[in-house]
Design goal:
Layout: H1 5-17, H2 40-54, H3 60-63, H4 69-78
Helix pairs in contact: 1-2, 1-4
Length: 83
Amino acid sequence: MSISMLDAEKRIINILESYGIIDPGKVLPHSRFNDLGMDELDVIDFIERVEREFGIVISDVDVNEFTTSDQVASYVSKRSDAR
């Protein structure tokens, strides 16, 4: 059973907001990571948190394609093994 896009978006936005360095008012599904002030290390940490949250492993190839949180949510929602 897969996760809905809406559920994935909400959980991913919660992860982003938990950073403390990101203004919660700026976090929207289409927010670009660099617009949120995230550098490469922040994005790597974020992806690791997403993997733990949803119980999945995201390949480096896929990670390099992500520039916004809604791209990550779409990816997660299509994974049948996400929880």
